[in-house]
Specification:
Elements lengths: L1 E2 L1 E6 L1 E2 L2 E2 L7 H13 L2 E9 L3 H16 L2 H6 E7 L23 H10 L4 E6 L6 H10 L3 E4 L6 H10 L3 E2 L16 H6 L5 E4 L8 H10 L5 E3 L12 E5 L2 E5 L5 E2 L13 H12 L3 H15 L6 E2 L4
Parallel strand pairs: 2-5, 5-6, 6-7, 7-8, 8-9, 9-10, 10-11
Antiparallel strand pairs: 1-15, 3-4, 12-13, 13-14
The structure holds zinc ion.
The site of zinc ion has 6 residues, from loops.
Length: about 300
């Protein structure tokens, strides 16, 4: 027997987008079953930047769907909220809509957390926004984890975020402009902070395999972990798939793009493929790859992973 997989950032799967208010119980169950077929029995359903009222509705809707299906309820081990407190600057904002971005606001967070039934476990934010450090201190004090991402924070802002309780970096190496100063950039600034556990997307597209290897070697043991950040195209054939209000294009090359744009917008990577990729690209044995992809992150969030039969 093996332990099943866990992923901290799943925006959708098997043609199903978790951002849609019209999401049906059958669609969500289909995504959960398809993730299970890819060995993934636990994950954080991830909602991205939108207006606070819309995010509240989405969390309430997901909670209603969880309440109606015990398999879905246990598969969604919590929520990862990525936005709306991100850098609105081009490149840093990625595919997130800057119109809905703002400085962090504790009252808004508390509304969202109430709508989510207290199940928001992880928030990705940009620590350079006004009030972000106090916000990090307040929500980490409530037991919610904070990850830095879609940010162009300075050294001092990163130091303050760590001191306030931030522990992670979301998809490090992405959520930045295509071209940056070779030394003075936020990837280097975050990579050098041994206190921070970095999550990387091992699809070979967000980070070419050689870059992934460099980043992996740059982190102390156990401080480089992995997540797919996958959207509806994962576990589904090439085509057009929604991510919130966006319609994204996924070709045979498995790259997820806004039509006509260079920026990547989530991945089409399945978690079990991610495990195989890190095994191959980082020269790990199978148990080490499973541990780094999955078990180590599940332990950080105290999530129990059910056993599954060894894949044949
Ligand atoms: Zn992102």
């Amino acid at each position: 027997m093996n332990t099943s997989l866990f992923d901290i950032q799943i925006n959708g799967f098997a043609g199903v987008d978790f951002q849609q208010l019209g999401l049906t119980a059958a669609q969500l169950r289909r995504a959960v079953d398809a993730l299970a077929a890819h060995q993934t029995l636990r994950f954080f359903a991830t909602l991205i930047t939108d207006a606070p009222d819309a995010l509240c509705e989405k969390f309430q809707h997901l909670e209603r769907l969880r309440a109606s299906d015990p398999v879905v309820a246990s598969a969604i081990a919590g929520y990862h909220l990525e936005g709306p407190w991100l850098s609105p600057e081009p490149g840093y904002r990625g595919a997130h809509d800057p119109k809905h971005m703002s400085a962090p606001n504790l009252r808004t967070f508390e509304r969202l957390q109430a709508a989510a039934g207290g199940n928001i476990r992880l928030v990705t934010l940009a620590p350079e926004l006004p009030g972000a450090i106090e916000f990090i201190r307040a929500i980490t004090g409530q037991g919610v984890h904070v990850s830095l991402g879609h940010t162009k924070a300075s050294d001092a802002e990163i130091d303050a975020a760590i001191e306030a309780g931030a522990r992670f970096c979301t998809h490090l190496g992405n959520g930045v402009p295509i071209e940056l100063s070779r030394h003075d950039n936020v990837i280097q600034r975050l990579l050098t902070r041994d206190e921070l556990i970095a999550f990387f997307i091992p699809d070979g597209i967000h980070l070419p395999p050689g870059i992934l290897k460099n980043f992996f070697r740059a982190k102390p043991a156990g401080k480089a972990l992995f997540s797919t950040d996958c959207m509806a195209a994962a576990g589904a054939p090439p085509g057009r798939y929604p991510l919130g209000k966006l319609s994204l294009e996924v070709g045979a090359d498995r790259v997820v793009r806004l039509p006509g744009r260079q920026n990547l917008a989530g991945s089409a990577l399945c978690p079990d493929e991610g495990v195989k990729n890190i095994q191959r690209w980082l020269g790990l044995d199978a148990p080490a790859a499973r541990r780094l992809f999955s078990t180590a992150s599940a332990e950080l969030f105290s999530i129990e992973l059910p056993a599954i039969p060894e894949p044949t």
